[in-house]
Amino acid sequence: MGRVELAGLDRLVLLFGPNAAGKSNLLDALDLLGHLAREDSVVSAFMKHRGNRAGREVPVRWFFRGMNADGIEARHLAFTADIDLNPSIRARINGELDERKKRERLKRPYTRVSRSLFRYRLQLSYRPRERALEVTGESLEALGRDGTALRSEKPFIRWDESADRLAVKLERQAHPRYFALPRQRTVLSEVGDIVNHPHLVAVARELASVRAYYVEPTRMRVEVSDIRAEDPGPHGESLAAFYHWLKHEHPSRYRNLVRNLAQLVPGLTAVEVEEGVEGFLALWIEEAGRGRFHAAMVSEGTLRLLCVAGIAATPIPPAVVGYEEPENGVHPARLAQTCQIVVEAAARDGGSQFLLTTHSHDVIDLLEHRAVCFACSQTADGSVFQPVAGDDEPLLRRAILKGALQDGETRRARLEEPEPSSGLGARVARGDYG
């Protein structure tokens, strides 16, 4: 991808552009950052990449300029993320500290999470000769409302490049802890002491909750283990377990979710999960006048709707949700309702920030005034994400939005073609056919 920067993000972000422009790669980067904050090694985090299939991992060097990363010099991959801490995470950690204080009957209060804005930096290095993948730099500092580092607050993680070490702030003591570089895991994934590191743990939980979804209906049809699942899984593979957990642990939320799905899927009256003789969980859909159907017999579009609605309804929302192409498998007349689910979930207090990718003109039309929009294109230097300003002249803005979905050849070929004002596709999207 080269160097990529996105600024001015909001709770709902729409990314669009032609194939191979870098939209999915951005979600991959977010997903990797989440794994780096929760896995016990850098190698484990890379093994979670969506390209892994059938137990075979993507070669690490492919992440560092693809097949051409065969040289002897170290290759570097760096992240910088400005974080506005989810209030629910801060409240949960402060609640845990309050409970601990009561339990231990302490007179001196614990340091609470008081900061909300942070900048996190992480550098990873891969040395092809040694086949070594390591953390070679990491920092975490508090920011002011103007986006600059607070001079009054010592960094929670300070990267001392001259000494090849990290200084990690102990919030109840004057002296920091030191970690030598390079390291096999991030400090965020290792330090879990909320008493001495409440802000660091808060940021770690924020990043660890990031989720990217690449829904695959074939994986949603199979019966699954009865292991607790608090979300449908990155590919929808835990959909049955998620609905089972939601029904038993949050019954009112489950009932509301089924009622909402009934408005999206004509005839749907119930979503049930049954345990088979071997202990696996199977998802069943009931439709009025038609009977009950196993997930293996349910349409791809219905399964996708169950997944996106479940993501939006989870009681413990991720800090960031990346979701690929919500239009896939969804009837055009139901697309507006699907987008509305995401809009409402993003606007909810303590809810997730959503980053959506799309190839659909309809999704752009539905979200162009509700989301921060970025047109993605591929250049010789990598992917470029160009913000589409909300104050652009309407016709110019529409031309940018629609043109960004076409690659160069397609765009040139269509310059002389008139834009159709109506047609079968438009009538289907309008709902003329049900």
SSE topology:
Elements: E1 12-16, H1 23-36, H2 42-46, E2 75-84, H3 87-104, E3 117-127, E4 132-142, E5 157-160, E6 165-168, E7 177-180, H4 187-190, H5 198-208, E8 211-213, H6 217-220, H7 239-249, H8 251-264, E9 268-275, E10 281-287, E11 291-294, H9 300-313, E12 320-324, H10 332-347, E13 353-358, H11 361-367, E14 372-379, E15 382-388, H12 394-403, H13 408-414, H14 424-430
Parallel strand pairs: 1-13, 1-14, 8-12, 12-13
Antiparallel strand pairs: 2-3, 3-4, 5-6, 6-7, 9-10, 10-11, 14-15
Task: Tell me what you see in this structure.
The chain has three domains: 1-23 and 319-413 and 422-434, no CATH class; 38-208, no CATH class; 211-317, no CATH class. It contains 14 helices and 15 strands. It has helices at 23-36, 42-46, 87-104, 187-190, 198-208, 217-220, 239-249, 251-264, 300-313, 332-347, 361-367, 394-403, 408-414, 424-430; strands at 12-16, 75-84, 117-127, 132-142, 157-160, 165-168, 177-180, 211-213, 268-275, 281-287, 291-294, 320-324, 353-358, 372-379, 382-388. β12 (320-324), α10 (332-347) and β13 form a beta-alpha-beta unit. 35% of the residues are buried.
The whole-number mean of residue pLDDT values reads 86
SSE order, as H and E?
Answer: EHHEHEEEEEHHEHHHEEEHEHEHEEHHH
Shape: globular
Radius of gyration: 24 Å
Task: List low-pLDDT spans.
Answer: 410-418
Total number of beta strands: 15
In oligomeric terms, what are we looking at? single chain
How many helices does DSSP assign?
A: 14
Q: Strands of the biggest beta sheet: in what spatial order?
A: 8-12-13-1-14-15
User: How many angstroms does the end-to-end distance come to?
Assistant: 42 Å
SS-derived structural category: alpha/beta
Query: How many domain modules?
Result: 3
Give the biggest beta sheet. 6 strands, mixed
Q: Helicity range of the residues?
A: 25-40%
Strand residue percentage = 15-25%
